[in-house]
UniProtKB/TrEMBL annotation:
InterPro entries: Acyl_CoA_acyltransferase, BioF2-like_GNAT_dom, PEP-CTERM_FemAB-rel, PG_Glycine_Bridge_Synth. It holds the Pfam family Acetyltransf_6. Residues 160-296 form the BioF2-like acetyltransferase domain. This is FemAB-related protein (PEP-CTERM system-associated). It comes from the Bacteria. Gene3D superfamilies: 3.40.630.30. It comes from Sphingobium fontiphilum. SUPFAM superfamilies: Acyl-CoA N-acyltransferases (Nat) (SSF55729). Signal peptide: none annotated.
Length: 354
């Protein structure tokens, strides 16, 4: 235990491999209105196992053992990008989950102590409240809106220009979808996703990460793939949490733009999510001013700023921003790599991004 600044509470390092502790952690996350998929043990342990970045699960606990706040921290380690404690790694959210300012301060201080113990590492919080004295920054926007009542209403919610593109995909009899969690879908999703991120100049995540998330989330995760006849052209792996669907790892091959299959995959996901009882569609984050952000806005979603926070004792911060000048030549070269080569070395690089 680490001392806090409220006499009735202590910060405890929880063992999420122990069933009772994991159950208590998840119960708090599921009950909290700001809990996200990235606070859940399924995400935290899946990331740790698949990327070899261990998770430190800090909880503020009262005398009765009741949890009143959480902070998961992955120790992300990379020879290229350096090290950091990240909450949560590879996530768009997952920062401090607590309401009481004193609890937030305790968890922040515990993170600082852990960072010093690990060699004065920087700490990066993806979302959540900003601790006093930490640096806040906003480089991303997030997109979410309620799902419409039915497919027709959903179609009408898409602005006219983008709706016309979607109608072309709906009228294409060669396009069809499959939804599920089976091996074929995993394989076809990864084929599409890896080509998509290679074309953007980004190293792909290990396929094991996607498998671990699917396995650990169970029915709260699935894959939808759009096929042109038998060829996978667009695909997305989605998470379901608190009445919201979040398409998370997705993309399309080069032909997806011509086929408008990216429009189709998200429209069909909306209908699938509605049938599952979801009420919100969370389109996730995009970089401010990016083409991806403009595309989501043209789909009928309004951007909202996403605030992150950092702290580091040694004045060192990781530079993992793909817009950084020092990475531009590498990104241009990566786009030209043969896909098998990119898929071979990409996972080794991406597991250190966090």
């Amino acid at each position: 235990m680490m001392a806090g600044n409220r006499a009735d509470l202590a910060i405890v390092a929880m063992d999420l491999s122990e069933e009772a502790q994991a159950r208590g952690w998840d119960a708090f996350v599921m009950a909290h209105p700001r809990g996200t998929p990235f606070h859940r043990t399924a995400w935290l342990t899946g990331v740790a196992v698949a990327t070899a970045n261990p998770c430190h699960a800090l909880a503020a606990v009262g005398p009765s053992g009741r949890i009143v706040g959480l902070l998961p921290l992955h120790h992300v380690q990379s020879r290229i990008f350096g090290q950091a404690l990240v909450s949560s790694a590879f996530a768009v959210d997952g920062g401090i989950l607590a309401d009481d300012p004193a609890v937030i301060a305790m968890l922040a201080h515990a993170a600082q102590d852990l960072a010093r113990d690990k060699g004065d590492l920087p700490v990066e919080l993806h979302g959540g409240p900003g601790p006093e004295g930490w640096e806040g920054y906003s480089e991303h926007v997030t997109f979410a809106r309620p799902l419409a009542a039915d497919d027709e209403a959903e179609l009408k919610a898409v602005p006219r220009k983008h709706r016309a593109e979607l109608r072309k995909a709906l009228a294409n009899d060669a396009l069809h979808i499959r939804i599920g969690r089976d091996e074929r879908l995993i394989r076809d999703h990864y084929r599409v996703y890896s080509e998509s991120v290679r074309n953007l100049g980004t190293p792909v995540f290990p396929v094991r990460l996607l498998r671990e998330i699917l396995d650990r989330f169970g029915e709260d995760a699935d894959i939808i793939v759009v096929y042109e006849r038998e060829r996978p052209v667009s695909a997305v792996l989605s998470l379901y949490h608190g009445g919201a669907v979040m398409p998370y790892w997705g993309g399309g091959i080069h032909d997806a733009r011509r086929l408008r299959s990216n429009e189709l995959v998200y429209y069909r996901l909306m209908g699938h999510a509605r049938a599952r009882g979801m009420t919100m569609f969370d389109f996730g984050r995009s970089k401010l001013g990016s083409g991806q952000a403009s595309w989501k806005k043209s789909f009928g979603f309004e951007p909202q700023p996403l605030l992150y926070h950092t702290w580091n004792a040694a004045g060192r911060a990781r530079d993992i921003d793909p817009r950084s000048a020092k990475y531009q030549r590498r990104i241009d070269l990566w786009k030209k790599l043969p896909l098998p080569v990119a898929n071979l070395i990409g996972p080794w690089i991406s597991r250190g991004l966090g």
